[in-house]
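hey m, so remember when u said the tokens were messed up on ur end? i reran from scratch. heres the input so u can diff it against urs
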Amino acid sequence: MSKTTLALACALAFAAGGAAAHGIDAASGNAKAADFDIVRTNVAASDRYLAFDMQVSGKAGATHPAKSGKLAGSTVFSYVWPTRIDTAEVGFDAAQGTLALAVTAHADFDDTPWIDENGDGNPDDDGDVWHSHWVVLVPDDACGKGMLKVKDIPEGAHPKLPATWPGLPILLDSPGYTPLMDGRHVRVRVPFRDPQRMLGSAFDGVTAGLRVNANVQAPLLCVVGVKEVASGDLSLPGRIAAAAAKGE
């Protein structure tokens, strides 16, 4: 995706609109790597949780970023569902940007300090295992013209944060919802007190790389390598619909 196209995508992501739809289908072959080549993305509401599902043309989660040995400049790979769910729904202040569920892997740091994803008894060494986050995305030209970042927390600011915020100076949460990398699918179930309230909310699907600032300062975490956008233009045409009943 060109910078011009991504700049347009950012504008569209923050605008209302889009025809009502359920899931988003995409043609295969739009991404070079099959494990990031989206063919369908969906979000459905049951009575207790939202079910996020992204299907790719290859084996989901097959590729991990190479280890660099340091946090500064390190790379994150991600499967992302940008939504128009309000940021207050997951514990941030309201209207902070685009709330997205992200499934990520990164070899050089661990941002889930209370979860032992790899089961080795050490909760601080498993950032390279696929895990989930809520992130708040906003545009910032410091990441490249028209590019997005995870929203920074300015020094001295005290925004509302979820209880499972991992301590980084960005609007990111580490809630511990285990992603299932199931063949061609990435699936995450996210509990809500009343997920039916989110019926009709807009969403999209993105596969992307992010990079930690080489100076480890704001903007701390930039989107630098969009692999594919399910809608093609980040217009968030998907709509959360009720999950099909079992047996249907």
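this time it looks ok to me. Residues 1-20 have pLDDT under 50 and may be disordered. if urs says something different then somethings off w ur setup not the seq
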